[in-house]
Design goal:
elongated; five-stranded antiparallel beta sheet; 3 helices; 7 strands; two-stranded antiparallel sheet; alpha+beta
């Protein structure tokens, strides 16, 4: 090989890039979600299924793999042989890098079917967090913000909706 330090740097770049994948777990918030309003609703879990979220396909794995494969391949032979080996190495490395990125960033997830207190039913798929334990019948809260929906265990029993009260004239008023 012509430059082992270059190959080592490319491998390190590919590994670090693959590690930058963000989690879709219910207990992970993006920085953009901080200090933004979040709507809150309550419900009961009807069904809990374990599923898989496919990995990312950002192109970084393919790019890193192609670079590593191209450099490694170009070290084989001399002249045109090294060029051909470099091209073949880049193609094979790109395919391998893309597959590695997708496999490395794949994660386990929950498919949660929730019956809201309003009677509506919804399904939310989210990554499995470190403390997540869900079972049918659990009371949960459904949080929605910036197009993201997450389910988390409710810490208190479901609260009944406030009922209207009557004022001194007998008219209904809201709390």
């Amino acid at each position: 090989m012509k430059n082992p330090l270059l190959i080592l740097a490319l491998i390190a770049t590919a590994v670090v890039s693959a590690g930058c994948a963000s989690s879709k777990a219910g207990d992970v918030y993006s920085r953009a979600e901080a200090r933004r309003p979040i709507s809150y609703r309550e419900g009961t879990l009807l069904e809990v299924r374990k599923v898989r979220l496919e990995g990312t396909k950002s192109g970084l794995g393919a790019l890193g793999g192609a670079a590593i494969g191209g450099v490694a391949g170009s070290g084989i032979g001399d002249g045109r042989g090294a060029i051909v080996a470099g091209i073949v190495g880049a193609v094979v490395g790109g395919v391998a890098g893309a597959a590695t990125e997708e496999g490395y960033t794949r994660e386990n997830a929950w498919e949660l079917t929730v019956r809201m207190t309003s009677g509506e039913t919804m399904v939310v798929v989210q990554g499995i967090g470190k403390e997540d334990k869900f079972a049918p019948g659990d009371h949960v809260r459904v949080l929605q913000s910036s197009g993201e929906t997450r389910v988390s265990p409710a810490t208190a029993p479901l609260a009944p909706a406030p009922s209207p009260t009557k004022d001194s004239k007998g008219s209904a008023t809201s709390l």
